[in-house]
């Protein structure tokens, strides 16, 4: 990395328990046992106020996690391929995932990842404790987001949504892709029970976080705590698109 070439500054904004914008320029490497030849940065986590943990992972040539990831009886996990090509396994089920590919492992199922490129592959990785529902059990899900058609979001033709996981009561969370055409926006400023972790896949925009309008762009990460004001509009010449998690299908606990 070497010596700095300019004054030290950062676009990142960290407000634990409320929201965070984490720009890629400030990320550092976190050593995660079991991952080999990988550079990993922990993004959202309980220390920030999240109920989940998000990571961005760069798997170098030969990178893998041969000992597996998650697999605990009460923890679920999800991986989304930002770029490159990986072999992903859910216990003994094997999948080849290229850009936009994803794999969900339910509680008790271990995820294995191996880079198939001669260069780097980049991943967005997630884990969270599962909130079970009596008589319901989630299952392994894999696919490629690029093969899923967009649907209009809230009856707007310039905002588009993809659901990556089934809309089934067995699942207490989902991953979505939300995309805004240039100049498009949310229909209103949202305030709701669910928190989010979002990784920006493309574009530029302005994001309302707790009623503060903040510029965002590709490769930024946003954490939004429950009930924090949130909304976006796209600027620039390409869609503002992000992949994000959202809890669902469960009542609030007392």
Automatic annotation (TrEMBL):
It is an enzyme of class 3 (hydrolase). One of its GO terms (molecular function) is ureidoglycine aminohydrolase activity. Keywords: Hydrolase. Gene3D superfamilies: Jelly Rolls. The keyword Hydrolase applies. The keyword Hydrolase applies. InterPro entries: RmlC-like_jellyroll, RmlC_Cupin_sf, UGHY, UGlyAH_cupin_C, UGlyAH_cupin_N. Its EC number is 3.5.3.26. Coiled coil: none annotated. NCBIfam families: ura-cupin. This is (S)-ureidoglycine aminohydrolase. It comes from Psychrobacillus lasiicapitis.
